[in-house]
Amino acid sequence: MNGYQKRLCILGSTGSVGTQTLEVVRNYPDHFKVVCLGANRNTDALKKQILEFLPKAVSCEYLEDVSNDINFSQTMMSLQQIATHEEIDTVVVATSGNVALLPTFEAIKNGKDIAIANKETIIMAGEQLTSLAKSNSVNLMPVDSEPSAIWQCLRGEDKSISKLIITASGGPFRNIPIPSLRDASPSDALKHPTWEMGKKISVDSATMMNKAFEVIEAKWLFDVNWDNIEVIVHPESIIHSMVEFSDGSTKAQLS
Length: 255
Known about the structure:
Blueprint: E1 6-11, H1 16-27, E2 32-39, H2 43-53, E3 57-60, H3 63-67, E4 75-76, H4 79-83, E5 90-93, H5 101-109, E6 113-116, H6 119-135, E7 140-142, H7 145-154, E8 161-168, H8 186-189, H9 199-206, H10 209-222, E9 229-233, E10 239-245, E11 250-254
């Protein structure tokens, strides 16, 4: 192994972002090691992850469903306990809802860097979260594409920001006349034209609520005024976000 190996705790390891994180670990084993895994109901996926990555500790609401089916040598802990585990240095917050709020705060208090894909935590307590991270010298790294794009654009720059520009694909209902939306079904909302995502974020994307969340995220993560955040519809989804600086220059993250 060459260089430093980041030791990870993944909260929400069986979800969309969690499984993508494990794919990165799988592809770069010299750079990342899974120490703790946390999941909710998807015990079948969690069992496979335990057997492959051999974490030292696991958190799962349905413990018996996991421990009865495999040779279970891992320590069972709560989400807060695995998020503060002494052998980790980075917590990947890949849950949905508010379940990771307290574990994230406890992780920051214990000096763990945070890679956060959970919008709700930032929306509920963004001001407190960013303040606590700063006071504990913790890196707060957004994982979701749009805030991560802004974060990448700001790397190596001073903070003379004029405007943050967040793009939106418009979702599956972009070209649907408003009167026709009353007939839209949940399955229609899941048919995102660009991305394959979990059900909740797909519905939030279809209603544009997800974009409202990202505006709130940007406000707290990058310490800008509400008036300095703009959303534009970009159906091609090539540009994820842009940063306009006070000198008139603009940086964009494309993929």
